[in-house]
Amino acid sequence: MIQQAIDFRDESDALYQLIEPLSADDFNHKSQFKDWTINDVLGHLHVWNWAADQSLNNEAVFDDYINSLVAFFAKGTLREFESQWLKGLAGKELLEEWHSFYQGMSKRFEAADPKKRVKWAGPDMSVRSSITARLMETWAHGQEVYDMQGVVRQNGDRIRNIAMLGVNTFGWTYMNRSMEVPENKPYVKLTAPSGDIWEWNEVSDTNVVEGDAADFCQVVTQVRNVGDTTLKTTGDVATQWMSIAQCFAGGVEEPPPIGSRFTVKK
User: How far apart (Å, rounded) are the C-alpha atoms in residues 92 and 38?
Assistant: First the structure.
């Protein structure tokens, strides 16, 4: 059993429950993230959930998908590719298609060998890492929906998966920017939603990131500027890392400006 697959399903269910009561018009309201709508969020999550499922269960289909994506980039953007792939699927129909698919997908991942290697758009990864990435994407892109609906998300300790991903991509953050990776990784001490204390790396008083685990996850997924959180950083390396942290693959992305991402008051 892969616990991360269950966590992925639970996080997706929470987002589904937030969106399901909304009206048809709500699906086209723009969020604080690049003006993405709920349709954009669901479409993006569904397309790449499908791709991850193919990488696990049908490598040939996944290869064809990636080849078509690469060919499309000669004439269009990722968002345009996703829109073409969805063939007009939107609104409540998209919501239910996404919901139905991730339910089955999570069960297939739950039963898979966690150490099996699967292909992706970047380097190959383990099955466990693949579904953890889907959990992270769902949590991160879900944030703009929670924000636009004026809902403060009630996190569970399943966000430990995202916090760990943030810690593990310390070096990636620097390498992706062609920067020298600092030799000493910051000590990370976080308070979980349950009140448990999570710790990573060597204990230090001079090179530390500490505070709320959800705040840390928001910073490493770039859904909040560290200046909009209660995280405390001590030392140049810890402070610099939190100003540029990026736990997801792809080109360099900049954290949102201070004050630009927040829960709308309704």
Answer: 11
